[in-house]
Design a protein that fits this description.
Blueprint lengths: L4 H9 L1 H8 L16 E8 L5 H20 L5 E10 L2 E2 L3 E3 L2 H9 L13 H11 L5 E6 L9 H11 L2 E6 L9 H12 L4 E3 L5 H11 L4 E9 L3 E9 L5 E8 L3 E5 L12 E7 L3 E7 L4 E9 L3 E8 L3 E7 L19 E8 L6 E9 L4 E6 L11 E7 L6 E8 L5 E5 L13 E3 L3 E3 L6 E8 L4 E7 L2 E9 L3 E7 L8 E9 L2 E10 L3 E4 L3 E3 L5 E3 L1 E4 L5 E6 L2 E2 L6 E3 L5 E3 L8 E9 L2 E11 L1 E8 L2 E4 L5 E10 L3 E6 L2 E2 L12 E3 L8 E9 L2 E11 L1 E7 L3 E5 L4 E2 L2 E6 L3 E5 L5 E2 L8 E9 L2 E19 L4 E4 L4 E3 L2 E5 L3 E6 L14 E5 L2 E5 L7 E9 L2 E12 L2 E5 L14 E3 L3 E5 L3 E6 L2 E2 L5 E3 L5 E3 L10 E6 ...
Parallel strand pairs: 1-2, 1-5, 5-6, 6-7, 24-30, 32-40, 42-48, 50-56, 57-64, 73-79, 80-87, 88-96, 97-105, 106-111
Antiparallel strand pairs: 2-3, 2-4, 8-15, 9-14, 10-13, 10-15, 11-14, 12-13, 16-17, 17-20, 18-19, 18-21, 21-22, 23-25, 25-28, 26-27, 26-29, 29-30, 31-34, 33-38, 35-36, 35-39, 37-38, 39-40, 41-43, 43-46, 44-45, 44-47, 47-48, 49-52, 51-54, 53-55, 55-56, 56-59, 58-62, 60-63, 61-62, 63-64, 65-67, 66-71, ...
């Protein structure tokens, strides 16, 4: 069952295969996916038959370990490894990130065989270290010592590289703890800061419970010692604030642990000490959480060999690397120093920030003794912070831990120890490497190379035949060297030795320098077919050599035409082209091999031919000319065109054929094929002739000619060769006095050797248009249909178009009434309207000319509106109906009627215009009083008034008739205006200045007439934005005004959408200002200002937010309190009070005052605490509002209102909570100040519950001060102040240095000093024999510090007992 060395080698080589077989491949995790600080939990388990009980407990304990680890916020374990071993096998190995798979593989383990002793445990540990992550936890379960302890050195190296911890759980040791197979367990545990636990089979589960707590992130080491005999040690150790818990583990016989806090008190279970593991004869592990910062004392004792491990949970830690030179790059450091070599250390601390300082580095033995102390220099401006260089030192010859001591940013001392111990690398003798043979070339530079590998400085020397060459060279570490020979000759042949000498020993190696032969050739050889060729290689060698000729890797003499001459040259007789190629000559002597090559070329003059030699081509075609040639070497073919080389290789195929595609005329000419090789040149030509089919071109393919004119038809033709032309058609090509019968199709034909082509000309004979019916003037009533006929004929068919003489468009303009269309030259007007009156011109045209005729359309039947007289004044009773008549006497077309009220259009629903034009008001109101005007209007004009909005255009019509035609003029206030062609007055972009009465005057020789039109200009209402903003805020009981500044003509009416019956609200300045005299919480709403006149309307919304200043309300028990609620409205609202949602009734303890606007709580009790709500309800406006709420708390002690101060005292290290109850609308924001400055996270205080609570934990003296609570909202602020005093228990200063006994000579005075500190300053009392000392003639107490007695005394409250003796 014991594997030999070959078995172990196989195991190491097959590790990767075994590992992959058990690896969880489903995760696809890469190195980049592994989080920083992640580690591996590895179980190395002995599966021999005697380990059955252990396996059952490990399977059960593993589940709890995984459950605890995975439930922590910071995931410590990234993956899990299982390495079973059983002599002589190791495996199968499992490593997975899936905890369920790990548990499954653990449950699948089964024990086999008997209880063999020893076992292959060290090899299994080595595999676990190789597959696990750095900083991992490896637990070994076995009941036998190791068999493969020779692998211990490799395991120790892996531990120092991986910084992992190995813990042994032994339920047996083969009953011999002096055997090296057991001692290596202790060495591995000591190096890795692990431990060896000796247990009974049933105690494994106890260790697993401890493992459940030990596997933790942020684990740091505080102490790691090993002791080979029973001993009791006390360790003084500073605990810094970052230590969240500390674990002390002691393995050994009869273990005992005592821990004292900085005050010297022994810590027990009641002080937070937890016992994680206690096996009376093997191990004890205790833990304390959140230890107080300070200097702690830890005492450990055991009756035999034992180890002590003290660790904690903290963010402050370090890692170290060793280097020969100072560096800030960890990649340039190693995990172990070299023995005897000056070494630098690079430290990287974590968890520290400026001004923290690493003060010193101690090298500590495994017994805990300081070997060497090295100072750490501070570089305050170094980036990144946390890198420290340690001065050069010589590593000790024993294993050591690194211990870093320093101060955190708050000045607390900290101390950390490396997770593993370091042992120096013992350097071996230098290793020298040289090749067995070195080549040197005759009369050329020669070099002898030597490579040396050494961890320490060495001296290098070259020698030959025992004679030193040159001078010795000194190297600090591994390097390369060489010995150089200027010109190699025969005398340089022989053995050369390289020797490296260091303090660890001497290494040497040698090489043999043997110059190989040298070969030169005169060059390549060229011959003609049938001749002989001689190939010669000149060989220079200091010794005998052999020369061999090869061709294609075979002996050249295999060819019967090849012979070797006496001078070793190669002769080839009757050369053929097949003999061409490379020939190689190889020279060999005892110094080596050399080779050279000669190329034999066999040449033959080319012979070339082409096919075809002459041919014709047309454009766009493709032509191929094939060229072939004989010769050797195979000739190269080149084509020329008209003695110019053709460069484009794409036109030539591999077989020498020239391909010309998409041929053009320029491609014609002489093409030459030129074949050439080394033997000569040959050429031959081929002629290509370009031909082109005729192309006929006609100047005009379609000719239109008038009757009697001369016709000329032109036809030209191109082609190669030049074609002949013929015409086909009865008649000649020049036709004089062309007639209708000459019309037709003419054909021009061109013919040459390449083909024929033809062209066509179409001749058409025509004349100018003539009217067959001309349009005539028409007079027709408005609204009727009118048709103007216009017919013409000619060849080609003439086109008939219509236009107006005044240039206005006929078809492409908007028509409000009629439709104008054209068909077959006729113009149709449906529903004739005023603007259709004009002179219309009909025009007919074709290629030979144009003619035109005109006709006038006159619109008749137009009548201006006339309204019958009606009563000028009407009276009506309010809420009665009334009808205002508007009788239309004349008007064509039928006028439209509208009513004006004070010159504004009537548009309300209460005022209805009837079909007969009368205005009906169903229920008359006071605001209906005013002037009403009925306006009748048609296209001719209006009866009285013309309305227009400012900025718009308007036309004032004036229709006039008379003979002769009257002249028109428009005037207003004596100012004349331009008249439009139709007699109207057009005003563009009307302004307010344009309003007034306009007079149209018509005059001719027979007389004059005039008509008046009143133009009213309206301006739509606008709200000027210079008024109040849309979002307005106000504080309760203050006055607020909402301004809605408006413009418009006529001046708009203004309405506010708010109940105006409330006396607290009034509208002023013609409705432009809404004023709320005293703002209430219920006034919070959206207010709308709506403005309107006859030209339009507009509105603006105001959002009013009402704020209530914050208040902190409280009442003392048995005291009275009045809550007040102000509310207004019309009608006045009713007030209701609710307490916690239940109506408040008038009774013995509560009274309702002033119609419910106040309630008085007569004598407050605890049951009166709650939230009181005042509700104001108005039935008229169907509005219910929660106006104000009070939170009232009845307190058993006096409650400080705004501006008062509370004094709070707390002992240092205690907790205190301050409360700030604030109410307001909106809910006020609460902030806290300490001594007038805002409280941040750096003060050590936490603000909770949106500022309503301020909590201070672990109070410090610096927390003393005044704390102010500020409640602020947009309406105001309130504050409450609290004075906190942090008290420090009294302590006597310098008590450690006080002597226990004081001697004094009789009758001589003596003074006893008792200096005490504390907050507040403590009072000092002196006791003698347990009784207070009173001042007497012989004893005085000075400033409360000390008496001058002559007997026993004691200072109380933490004082010393002092014993006096008389001498």
């Amino acid at each position: 069952r014991t594997p030999g060395p070959s078995k172990l080698v196989w195991l190491s080589l097959a590790l990767s295969v075994v590992f992959s077989a058990g690896q969880d491949t489903g995760t696809g995790t890469t190195t980049e996916d592994i989080p920083e600080g992640a580690s591996t939990l590895a179980f190395v388990f002995d599966v021999t038959g005697s380990m059955y009980d252990d396996l059952v407990q490990v399977i059960e304990g593993a589940s709890k370990i995984l459950e605890t680890s995975l439930s922590r916020p910071q995931k410590t374990l990234y993956n899990f490894a299982l390495v079973p071993f059983h002599d002589p096998e190791i495996g199968p190995i499992t490593i997975t990130t899936d905890p369920k798979k790990f548990q499954y593989e653990l449950r699948e383990l089964y024990v086999q065989g008997g209880g063999d002793c020893p076992e292959m445990s060290i090899g299994a540990i080595k595999i676990a270290l190789e597959i696990s992550l750095p900083g991992s936890f490896i637990y070994v379960f076995t009941d036998a010592r190791s068999k493969d302890y020779k692998l211990t050195h490799e395991v120790l190296q892996l531990i120092q590289q991986k910084q992992s911890q190995v813990v042994f759980v032994l339920t047996g040791d083969c009953d011999d703890r002096t055997h090296i197979g057991y001692k290596v367990y202790e060495e591995i545990a000591s190096t890795s800061s692990g431990q060896v636990f000796h247990l009974d089979k049933k105690q494994v589960n106890e260790v697993l419970k401890w493992v459940e707590e030990a596997v933790h992130a942020s684990k740091v080491h505080l102490l790691s010692t090993d002791h080979f005999t029973g001993a009791s040690n006390t360790w003084q150790m500073p605990f810094d604030p970052s230590l969240k818990e500390v674990t002390v583990a002691l393995s050994g016989l009869a273990p005992n642990i005592e821990i004292k806090n900085p005050q010297g008190k022994l810590v027990g279970n009641s002080d937070g000490l937890t016992e994680l593991l206690h096996i009376p004869n093997s191990a004890k592990v205790v833990n304390i959480k959140d230890p107080q910062p300070g200097m702690w004392s830890i005492k450990t004792s055991s009756e035999g060999r034992h180890s002590v491990r003290i660790s904690g949970l903290s963010t402050i830690d370090f890692r170290a690397g060793f280097s020969r030179k100072p560096t800030l790059d960890f990649k340039k450091t190693s995990s172990r120093p070299v023995q005897g070599i000056p070494t630098h250390i690079l430290l990287n601390t974590t968890g520290l920030s400026p001004p923290a300082q690493a003060d010193r580095l101690d090298l500590v033995s495994i017994k805990g003794e300081v070997i060497k102390t090295l100072p750490i220099r501070n570089y305050p401006k170094r980036e990144p912070f946390g890198l420290w260089n340690i001065t050069e030192f010589i590593p000790p010859n024993e294993a050591f831990f690194l211990q870093v001591t320093g101060y955190d940013r708050d000045g607390f001392p900290f101390q950390r120890v490396s997770s593993v111990s370091f042992s120096s690398i013992v350097p071996d003798a230098p290793k020298v490497l040289m090749p067995a043979t070195s080549h040197g070339y005759y009369l050329q530079r020669g070099v002898v190379h030597c490579q040396v590998e050494s961890l320490i400085p060495f001296t290098l020397r070259f020698s030959r035949d025992g004679r030193r060459l040159g001078v010795d060279q000194l190297f600090s570490e591994s390097d390369n060297a060489l010995w150089e020979i200027a010109q190699v000759t025969l005398k340089d042949e022989g053995y050369y030795e390289c020797i490296a000498i260091s303090s660890a020993g001497t290494g040497r190696a040698r090489t043999f320098l043997d110059p190989p032969p040298a070969i030169t050739v005169e060059g390549n050889v060229t011959v003609s077919p049938g001749s002989s060729a001689v190939l010669t290689c000149h060989v220079v060698s200091t010794v005998s050599f052999n020369l061999t000729w090869l061709r294609g890797g075979q002996d050249a003499r295999l060819d019967p035409r090849v012979h070797i001459l006496t001078n070793l040259s190669l002769q080839v007789s009757a050369v053929t082209p097949d003999h061409s190629g490379w020939y190689e000559c190889i020279a060999i002597n005892e110094g080596g091999v050399m080779a050279e090559r000669i190329y034999l070329t066999v040449q033959e003059v080319p012979r070339v031919s082409v096919e075809p030699q002459n041919q014709t081509f047309t454009a766009g075609g493709e032509m191929r000319i094939r060229c072939s040639a004989r010769g050797y070497p195979p000739p190269r073919l080149v084509w020329t065109h008209n003695d110019m080389f053709i460069i484009a290789s794409s036109r030539m195929t591999p077989d020498g054929t020239l391909v010309i595609r998409n041929m053009e005329k320029k491609d014609g000419g002489v093409y030459g094929c030129l074949a050439s090789n080394l033997a000569g040149t040959d050429t031959i030509t081929s002629i290509l002739t370009y031909i082109e089919s005729p192309v006929v071109t006609v100047a005009l393919s379609d000719i239109l000619i008038g009757i009697g004119e001369t016709t000329v038809m032109a036809c030209s033709a191109s082609g190669i060769p030049q074609p002949n032309i013929w015409w086909y058609k009865g008649g000649t090509l020049t036709i004089k006095e062309t007639q209708d019968v000459d019309a037709g199709e003419y054909i021009c034909v061109a013919v040459n050797a390449a083909g024929s082509s033809s062209g066509k000309i179409s001749l058409d004979v025509g004349a100018e248009p003539k009217f067959t019916r001309e349009p005539s003037d028409v007079a027709s009533d408005i609204g009727s249909n009118v048709t103007l006929l216009c017919l013409a004929q000619a060849h080609p068919e003439p086109q008939v178009t219509w236009r107006r003489e005044d240039g206005l468009p006929i078809f492409n303009r908007p028509h409000t009434h009629g439709i104008i269309t054209q068909s077959s030259g006729a113009l149709h007007i449906n529903n004739l309207w005023v603007e259709d009156e004009a002179v219309y011109i009909c025009e007919a045209h074709n290629h030979f000319g144009r003619i035109q005729a005109q006709a006038r359309i006159t619109v008749t039947g137009l009548v201006s509106p006339v309204i019958a007289m009606s009563p000028t004044v009407l009276s009506v009773i309010e809420d009665q109906q009334v009808t205002l008549p508007c009788v239309l006497l004349a008007g064509n077309p039928l006028p439209e009627r509208q009513w004006l009220h004070d010159y504004g259009l009537v548009r309300t629903q209460r005022e209805n215009v009837q079909k007969d034009g009368s205005l009906h008001i169903e229920r008359a109101r006071l605001e209906d009083t005013g002037d009403y005007t009925c306006l009748a209007e048609n296209v001719i004009g209006s009866s009285q008034v013309k309305l227009v909005q400012v900025g718009h255009p308007v036309e004032l019509p004036c229709v006039v008739r008379g003979v002769p035609q009257p002249s028109l003029s428009w005037t207003k206030d004596g100012k004349r205006y331009p008249v439009s062609p139709d007699g109207s007055l057009a005003l563009r972009n009307v302004g307010l200045a344009d309003e007034g009465t306009y007079t149209c005057t018509a005059t001719n020789t027979a007389g004059r007439d005039e008509a008046q039109v009143r133009l009213l200009v309206q301006v739509p209402p606008t709200i000027v934005e210079s008024g109040s903003p849309r979002d307005v805020s106000a504080i309760v009981k203050q006055e607020i005004s909402l301004e809605c500044k408006v413009q418009g003509v006529p001046f708009p009416t203004i309405q506010w959408l708010v109940f105006l019956g409330d006396p607290n609200v009034e509208v002023t300045n013609r409705g432009q200002v809404l004023r709320i005299k005293s703002v209430r919480l219920g006034d919070k709403a959206r207010y709308q200002c709506s403005v309107m006149n006859t030209a339009g309307k507009q509105s603006k919304d105001f959002n009013l937010s009402v704020y209530v200043p914050p208040s902190i309300k409280g009442v003392i028990l048995s005291k009275s309190l009045i809550l007040e609620c102000e509310a207004g409205g019309h009608p006045p609202p009713s007030l209701t009070w609710l307490k916690d949602g239940v109506p408040v009734r008038d009774g013995e303890s509560v009274r309702l005052l002033e119609q419910g606007s106040k309630i008085e709580i007569l004598s407050a009790t605890g049951s009166d605490s709650g939230r009181y709500v005042c509700v104001a309800t108005s039935i008229e406006t169907f509005l219910s509002r929660s106006l104000l709420s009070f939170g009232m708390v009845c307190m058993p002690i006096p409650y400080l209102l705004e501006g008062d101060t509370d004094d709070v005292a707390v002992t240092k290290g205690g907790d205190v909570t301050l409360q700030c109850s604030a109410e307001g609308v909106p809910r006020p924001a609460v902030t806290w100040l300490k001594d007038g400055r805002p409280i941040t996270g750096q003060h050590g205080a936490k603000v909770l519950n949106e500022g309503r609570l301020l909590q201070i934990k672990d109070a410090k003296v610096s927390d003393t001060g005044r704390y102010t609570c500020f409640a602020v909202n947009v309406a105001g602020q309130a504050d409450s102040r609290h004075d906190i005093s942090v008290h420090v228990p009294p302590s006597i200063i310098g008590q450690v240095q006080l002597p226990e006994n004081v001697s004094v000579v009789v009758k001589n005075p003596v003074a006893l000093s008792c200096e005490a500190s504390g907050i507040p300053l403590p009072a000092i009392t002196w006791l003698k024999d347990g009784r207070p000392i009173k001042a007497t003639s012989s004893v005085r107490v000075l400033s409360g510090e000390g008496p001058e007695p002559a007997s026993n005394a004691c200072c109380s409250r933490g004082c010393w007992e002092v014993h006096l003796y008389c001498v």
